Amino acid sequence: MTRAPSSITARETDEQVTGRTAYRAVIERLSKASVDKHWEPYRDIPWDDPGYRVDPADPRWELPGVDKLGGHPWYLARPPETRAAIGLWRVATAMKIGLQFENLLKRGLLNYAYRLPNGSPEFRYVYHETIEEGHHGMMFQEFVNRTGMPIRGMPRPLSLVAQVAPLIPLISTELFFVFVLGGEDPIDHVQRKVLKDDRPHHPLEETIMRIHIAEEARHISFARHYLRNRVPRMPAYRRFMLGVAAPLILGVMARIMLAPPGAMIRHFRIPPNVVAEVYLRNPEARREIRDSVGRTRELCVELGLVNRFTRRLWRAMGIWAEPRA
In terms of Cα–Cα distance, which of 255, 264, 259, 203 is closest to 78? Predict the structure, then answer.
């Protein structure tokens, strides 16, 4: 059994990879790391340990500070078991949407790998990542199953539209890896914030998050280095098109990953005015969405994908902030 990381895994460091040799070295390092340190959900998570049992009334499920509903008077006035159940529903929905996103991601990665030539270092790494994402999907679904809640994940219309995502690599691999970062960065951002707060966490949730953060650090690093290597060599018109698409994809993906699930709102009869106050008109909630794509936004600025025109799109999507000095 491999223990989950005892501390929050550091993010991978970006490297200059405009040269093929440097880029190849990064990919080979990430592949080696996938061999040296990885987890399997049914070997490395003690699902049947009594301390890991999922009790919907456990107060450790109450909403963390990163979810602004947790501080609203309506939520605080609910009985403790209801507050816990709302928090558990929120966690389970995030995991269900996560496994649905990773299902799309795996299919897209395999479409990308299908056309790679012999000897390509990306081929091995993509298969490492696909296997790890498969493990994530299994542990997320097992968690959802153990809650006993009727969790659906993405709304059905959105789920149907999302089925085109695995086809993106057939059109543009660069656009696909922007999509990848649009799903992975917001979840990584939130999970790191949750683990850094001072609240006690349920051990099953904490174990899953620590494993996910540790392996996603490599997945995010691959996507970032792929873009760092490829985007500077794209023709100008394709860079412009990618610059237009990036804020649209990132703005939509951040909201999918962080928005409150409609089924939860209906199930617990959360009043519309409370939802509006907490998630729609709340500057803190808007800032959370903006911050969740901060690293990808900075990468787009660095790669020259942000200009006077595309900056307006970032602002229109509510995800623009001036780059740090």
Answer: 264
- What is the per-residue burial (b if ≥16 Cβ within 10 Å, else e) of 283-310? eebeebbbbbbbbbbebbbebebbeeeb
Cα 196 vs. chain centroid, distance in angstroms?
17
Assigned token pair, 181: 């970062």
- Measured from the Cβ of residue 49, the count of other Cβ atoms closer than 10 Å reads 10
Q: Calculate helix-pair angle for 203-230, 80-114, nearest 10 degrees.
A: 30
Tokens 């808007």 correspond to 286
Q: What is the per-residue pLDDT for 80? A: 97
**Which helix (H) or strand (E) element contains residue 286?**
helix 283-292
Contact present, 181 and 296 (Cβ < 8 Å)? yes
For residues 9 and 216, the answer to whether their CB atoms sit within 8 Å is no
The predicted-structure confidence for 118-156, as pLDDT tens digits, reads as follows: 999 999 999 999 999 999 999 999 999 999 999 999 988
Contact 135, 41 (CB under 8 A): yes
Q: Give buried/exposed letters for 114-137 (b at 16+ CB in 10 A, else e).
A: eeeeeeebbbbbbebbbebbebbb
pLDDT tens column, 260-300: 889 999 999 999 999 999 988 889 989 999 999 999 999 99
Alpha helices in 197-261, H assignment, sequence order? 203-230, 236-258
How would you label 189-225 residue by residue, b for 16+ Cβ within 10 Å and e otherwise? bbbeebbeeeeebbbbbbbbbbbbbbbbbbbbbbbbb
Report the 10 Å Cβ neighbour count for 254: 26
For residue 275, the SS3 value is: helix
> Taking the CB of residue 236, how many other CB atoms lie within 10 A of it?
8
- In the block, tokens 């690599």 appear at 169
Please state, in angstroms and rounded to a whole number, the distance separating the CA atoms of residues 69 and 63.
Answer: 7
Q: Check residue 281 and report its DSSP letter.
A: S
Tokens of 136: 């994530």
pLDDT, mean of residues 196-215: 94
